[in-house]
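Same chain as my last thread, 243 residues:
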Amino acid sequence: MVGVPAPLKTQGIVLRSLRYAEADRILHLYTPDLGRVGAIAKGVRKPRSRFGGRLEPFFHLHLLLHRGRGELMTVTGAETVAGHPALRQDAGALDAAARACDAVARLFETSEPHPQVFWLLANELGLLDREPGRAGHANALAFRLKLLVAAGIAPQLSGCASCGDAEHLIGFSGAAGGVVCAACEASGFALERDAHAFMADSLGRPLAEAPDAPERALRQAERAIIETAEHHAHVRLRPALAA
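reply #2:
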């Protein structure tokens, strides 16, 4: 007689929560142990559900998951680690949190575990909850740059990605994978010194100490991030800020 498999214990962050059937929810979760997971929470929308309102986007949870025969796991237990209530009261922070979760979902869509991605996202959501005013272009881009590092596609910033020259770095090429010098600039777009410095500083500092830069430089940095993700992960990231 085959026994019932034991539930899987893990932490998880709710990336997305969708209504399903009369009272259920389909959850997109990111976990440190199982990567990205799809799960169903049965009866969660009933008034007396034992899950309450904790299976909503951005919740950081301790989870019990049961693996059945289908693609979706079943949530059998959930305890809140962090609900991020302050984040939910600020429109800018709420949008930033949604875009951070979306970036994780796009760049890390498999069940391959990346614990550093989980903790980076947890850190970002915690930061937005403690300091909603940080929800700006610079913070969003610093977060995405760190995601590129975790994905193994960090842009080359210390020397020309095409020829290796460390001087006259005036452009960026997504195809080449980083900054390019004057001789190789034809393969990329102009990247000013402020944008280059912002990207390098963002990768060298904790997320809570992300630098700022003029908006022109931030737009260039965002283009570099988007092109890097497209060329090397075949992923199209949403804009870091609402238009």
